[in-house]
Amino acid sequence: MFNGLLEVLHGGVLGGRTFELPAQTVEGVYPVGGDVRYLISADGQKIVGKRRMHQDIINFTIRKDSTYSLHTHILSDTPEDSDVFEVLTRQPLIPEYIFTCNYAFKANPEASLQVVEAKSCGKECETYVAKLPGFQAFRKAGCPDMAGPP
């Protein structure tokens, strides 16, 4: 059983977008991933597109003294709508770094998104991401649990 949130955002003559996101069921634990975006026809009667934004669900616990968190994204080279939504809706309000095969992004609590690193790899994504200077700095800060600096 999927305990999720389904939200419709109206898009005028182009239809709308609907998101299926995993719901937070435990205070202080934030589910990331397992989300889907649907494109709805202009008349609101049909689903005309479907996109899985993240593959699996990872439950994050963010310490009160954390200054940032992160996750890797392997389904595409760009952050998803839900990446920004998650940054805006959890506590504490801290940035989220999103590492892809070719880029590192920072989603900020002010609803901005920026590229912080761009490289071409041509290697296996997981191996490449683990070697990114930003990811290594995060690990050196003592954060193997991806919950932000101690």
Write the layout of secondary structure elements.
Elements: E1 4-10, E2 16-22, E3 29-33, E4 36-40, E5 47-52, E6 57-61, E7 69-72, H1 81-89, E8 96-99, E9 103-107, E10 113-118, H2 125-131, H3 133-140
Parallel strand pairs: 7-8
Antiparallel strand pairs: 1-2, 2-4, 3-6, 4-5, 8-9, 9-10
Q: What is the compact description of this entry?
A:
The protein is α+β, with helices and mostly antiparallel strands and 150 residues long. It has helices at residues 81-89, 125-131, 133-140, and strands at residues 4-10, 16-22, 29-33, 36-40, 47-52, 57-61, 69-72, 96-99, 103-107, 113-118.
- Total helices: the number is 3
Distance between the termini: 35 Å
H/E topology pattern? EEEEEEEHEEEHH
Q: Can you list the strand order of the major beta sheet?
A: 1-2-4-5
What proportion strand?
35-45%
Question: Into how many domains do the coordinates divide?
Answer: 1
The unreliable regions are 6-14, 141-150
The best one-word shape is: globular
Structural class: alpha+beta
Binned, the helix content reads 10-25%
Nearest-integer average pLDDT: 74
Radius of gyration: 16 Å
**Record field, number of beta strands:** 10
Q: How would you sum up the major sheet?
A: 4 strands, antiparallel
Structure description:
Residues 6-14 and 141-150 have low confidence and may be disordered. The protein has helices spanning 81-89, 125-131, 133-140; strands spanning 4-10, 16-22, 29-33, 36-40, 47-52, 57-61, 69-72, 96-99, 103-107, 113-118. The strands form three sheets. It has a four-stranded antiparallel β-sheet, with no helix packed on it. Strands 7-8-9-10 form a four-stranded mixed β-sheet. It has a two-stranded antiparallel sheet with strand order 3-6. With 150 residues, the protein is α+β, with helices and mostly antiparallel strands. A hairpin with a 6-residue loop joins strand 4 (36-40) and strand 5. The radius of gyration is 16 Å and the shape is globular. The relative contact order is 0.15. The N and C termini lie far apart (35 Å). It has one domain (4-140). It is built from three helices and ten strands, in the order E-E-E-E-E-E-E-H-E-E-E-H-H.
